Every structure is written in structure tokens, then in C-alpha cells.
Amino acid sequence: MKQSFRQSMAWLHTWTGLLVSWLLLLIFMGGTASYYREELNRWMRPELPRTVVAPDVAATNALRYLQREAPDATYWNVTLPDARNPALDMYWMNPAREGASNDRASRRARFGQATIDASTGEHSQVRETRGGDFFYRLHFDLYAIPVLWARYIVGFCAMFMLVAIITGVITHKKIFKDFFTFRPRKGQRSWLDFHNVSAVMALPYHLVITYTGIVTLMVMYLPLGIKAAYPEGPQAFYDESFSDLPPAGDAAGTPGTPKPIAELLASARLAWEGKAVESFRIDHPGDAAETVSVYQRDGRRLSYETPGVRLNAATGQIIAHSGRAGAASETRGVLYGLHIARFADPVLRLLLFASGLLGCLMVASGAVLWGIKERAKHLKSGRIGVGLRLVDALNIGAVGGLPLAFASYFWANRLVPLHIEARPDMEARVFFLVWAIAIVAGFIRPRRQTWAWLLYMAAGLFTLIPLLNALTTHVHLGVTLPQGDWALAGVDLVTCCIGLVLGYCGWRMQRWQPPVSAAEKRRRQAPPQPQIEGGAA
Known about the structure:
Strands 3-2-1-4-5-6-7 form a seven-stranded antiparallel β-sheet. The protein has helices at 5-18, 21-33, 37-43, 55-69, 104-109, 132-141, 147-171, 175-179, 188-201, 203-216, 218-221, 224-229, 234-241, 261-271, 327-340, 346-381, 386-415, 423-444, 448-463, 465-473, 486-511, 518-525, and strands spanning 75-79, 88-93, 111-116, 277-283, 291-296, 308-312, 318-321. Helix 2 (21-33) runs antiparallel to helix 16 (346-381) and helix 17 (386-415) runs parallel beside helix 19 (448-463). It is built from 22 helices and seven strands. By secondary structure, it is α+β, with helices and mostly antiparallel strands.
């Protein structure tokens, strides 16, 4: 019998969603955590100072440190502190040694970086960690595989997700009714309702975040048009399309005397009608050709493109402005900005985080729902197929194991010794080791009890994070938190709430019983048939 258009879309929705659901869940969870990337960086570096100083004071202290620690660098780059991140982070590039190669590894070895106390200009003894940046990079670079391949894989998953969203809208003809429909304790019907509700409640968010995620890497995914239009090389395309500042000129080779950095930053703010400075870069420090490139802090601007000005360090005169992007590039910048949401205030950021959590639940419930539906079919035939066993194991490893791996990363941040070599990599290894153990457990014992215990363990680790924070940072509950510690308290509160929800899910999973059909209920309730003894006389 020929399928209708809606039925064919249902088939496509099922398979485009299922085939990438486990990796898509990792991407969604990492991206959702990235909304609080700065707060997680703050939580995972509790040694950072708790006060925010004025930008001009921080910039002056940064230059004093760099002039002492990296006087011969070819450039300095400084990110100023703000309310979400009180740290003063900087990096620089040292000059190349004679005879050294110019490959990527050699250039990377020339980089230096430091985090200092913005109020004193002294080096802060903070633990080495990727912090929230680990989740941010994880959701589009994955880990331990070549970056190019990782981004192609993520783009492939995003395309499947986009198709699944569109076909899901087509398939559900009662999509608005489904928004208000949830029937608990109905087995497969309840899972379908939950999947529909989690999808429809944040449907605009799911559509925008998936599409804009593809747009962020569109230049990498569609390179042939650039190659055809710009045979001289892709750099010509970037120079023409994007509004970055032009490259700085060459060094003069003679010493110079720059103006105080506070005056230069004030000139940039004046050009921007008072808008704040986020970062600045100094090329050829100490040279007569020294220039200072100043970049504007994100505010209510939707676009990802950051306005910048370049000043002559000796005279304070503005010598270059970032260009004005064309309509297509500006559109891309806005879509990119919508994806990373740097413009979001605290309330909007919280709503985006909640929408991201709904996206995680949508992906997870869809994968579980497929297993429940298929199990009913397989039970009728009397055997469980290899495909269903594989999906069951992967569901346990991803849906049950990923929350445990995320919680383990927080614990590793506080329990891995501070002075161990390659400490950030050790934290990441803990994350993937725990996740791998959960996947193996799913293959060895794909049972309901495995689900329950993974969820219980994740619940315990998440719920105890506030206690872990208190014991490892000497911040005791019940006292007034100093300025800047609300980031720590916020992370503690959210992780504790997540732990309670996971604990409830584990309890429900442990008590869950497969629904019984009406025919089976009647058979069980029917009185036993009397047995006739004996035979013919």
C-alpha cells in the first residue's frame, strides 16, 4: 500500500533522529552548558580574585606584567575582566628563534599565556583547567580527533537534526494540541507525549539553534564557491567579506614611547560613544611603529562581528576602523550571534539554558521511544534483534552515562592534584573514562537496573557538588557570599537541582513496570478454569 506524504515524513523523522541521537545528545548537552561558560570557568578556578576592578586599572596592571615577563614579544593580547569573569587573561607570541621552522607546532610553542590578579598585576596561582571552555569546544570540536573531521561530523549531525525537526513538524498534524497533552503512566504513549512536549515547548529555539549552528561553519562546509570566485586564495574572500581590522604594519626597528594605555582606551570609547572595551592587542610593543587594536565589549548587539579600532600608540590617533560588512556577511554575523547568545542578559540566558535542557530531553526521549516501540514488535515475534540490543545499550551509555560523565568532570576539577602534569587533559580523560564505562555497562547488562544505577550515581555526584565546593574552597554555607561568589552559588544550585531530578528519574526507572495490555489484564483477572479429573468409566 502506498504511503501518504505524512507517513513517509514519519519514517524520515525516525531515522534521521535516531542515527545521530547519541552524539547529538553530547553536542546538545555541551552547548547548553556553554551558556554559562564564564560562570563555569569561575567555578572551576576558585583561586581567582572575587572583585572586579576598573578596566583602565586592569589594563595598566596587565601592561606592567607583560613588560616585565614578555618584553620581546611580537604582540600582546589582553582580555579585560568583567562581572562574569573577574580574571585578567592574556597571551602573547614570542619572537621566532634563528633557524626555527615556521610550522604550526613551532608557532604554537612560541605562545605564552597568563592569568593575573587584575587589582595587583601579580600572577594568580590558579589551577590549570579548561573549565567551561571544555564543554564549549566539545560541542563542535569533540575531543582527541582532528578538528576538521570533528566539525564535519558535527555538521553532519546538525543537518540530520534539522531534517528531523522539519519532518517532525510535518508528521504531527496536531502539533499545538500535543503541546498541552501529557498522559502519565501510559507506557509508550507517555514517552511519545513527553517527546512531543519537550519538542514543541521550545520548537523555535530548536530550529534556530540547529540552523545557526550550521551557519557558524558554513565557510568550511561550502568551500568550492570560494575557490571558484577567489582563485588567488581564501584570504581575499575573508578580507572582502568580513569586517575585521586590516593586518598591522611592520615594525620600525627603533624604540618608541607610547601613550598610557588608559588614554588610548578612552579614545576608543569616545569613538564608540561610551561603549565598553572588551580586549586590546598591542603589535610591536616598545617599537616606534607600535599600534593598539581595541575591541568593543558585547552588549545588546546581535551580530557576532566585534567592532574595533586601531590607534597609533605614540600619538593616540585612530588609524583604522573595522570595516562595514555587506548584507550577506552581516546576516551571517547575526545568525552566528544568535547561536552563541553573548547578547543575553541573565533572564534571557536562563531561558536559553532551559530551552537547551528541553532539547536534551527531546533527543534522549526520542531515542528511548524508538527502543520501546521496537521492543513491543520484537516481543510478538519472540526474539530480540541485534539492532534493538545495540540501541538499548547505546541509550543506556548516552542517556544514562553522559550525565554521570558531566558530573565526574566537576569532581575531577576539584580532586585531581593541582600540580600534576597536563592537568586539563587529565580532567578530560576522567570525563571520557566514566562515559566509556557507562557504555560498556550498557552493552554488558542492558537492563532497567543499569539505567537506575547510572542515574542514581549521576544524581549523587551532582547533588553533592555544593558540598564538594564548600570543602575544597573553604566557603561555608550560611555566610554572606563576597562579591563575585554568586557564580559559585549559582553553579552549586543548578547542579543540585539537576541531581534531584536525576535521582527522581532513577527512582521511577527502578519502579517502572511494562504496561499490560487490556487483553492481558482480562486474562489475569479471569477465574481459573476447573480441571476435569478422570476419564471414561
